[in-house]
Design brief:
Keywords: Membrane, Transmembrane, Transmembrane helix. This protein is mostly helical. About 80% of the residues lie in helices and about 0% in strands.
Length: about 150
């Protein structure tokens, strides 16, 4: 199962997940995301600034998690493709792979993104930004693992 994984695609998509996350949350959706993610009360007008060591630690942890996510997705996609032969659906259809990816994204990311609203009391803006990032990220993973063989 792990022999068929394109580890070049894992490395590139893992790094690009970090770049995409930065662009999505710190450039494209910066103001609403940071306001609603970190809060902005009357007593505090600035978002908290993490230390340099904290930032480095966050990057290292996220890049490792991105690699793990890329490997897990690659395995799921290969299993889905192989299942097409065994179960009679078209495992070679990109359109079917896209819908499989969206189902996988919804099933595994919505509990965490919606959990920010229901358990951490973040805004629906945070949920929307985080969820849309995951949809774009998993679409990027699909493109890498589908075409980079």
């Amino acid at each position: 199962m792990f022999d068929s994984i394109n580890y070049g695609a894992v490395v590139v998509s893992g790094i690009l997940s970090l770049v995409l996350g930065f662009l999505w949350m710190a450039v494209i959706w910066k103001k609403p995301y940071q306001r609603d993610m970190y809060g902005n009360t009357a007593n505090r007008t600035e978002t908290p600034k993490p230390s340099k060591a904290g930032i480095i630690q966050s990057f290292v942890i996220y890049i490792i998690v991105s690699f793990v996510t890329s490997i897990a997705y690659a395995v799921c996609l290969e299993l889905w493709r192989a299942g097409g032969q065994a179960l009679g659906y078209d495992g070679d259809s990109f359109a079917n792979a896209f819908w499989f990816t969206m189902l996988l994204t919804a099933g595994f990311t919505l509990p965490f993104t919606v959990g920010k609203k229901v358990w951490q009391f973040k805004s629906w803006t945070v949920v929307a930004v985080d969820t849309s990032y995951e949809v774009v990220r998993f679409t990027m993973l699909l493109l890498f693992f589908w075409y980079w063989t």
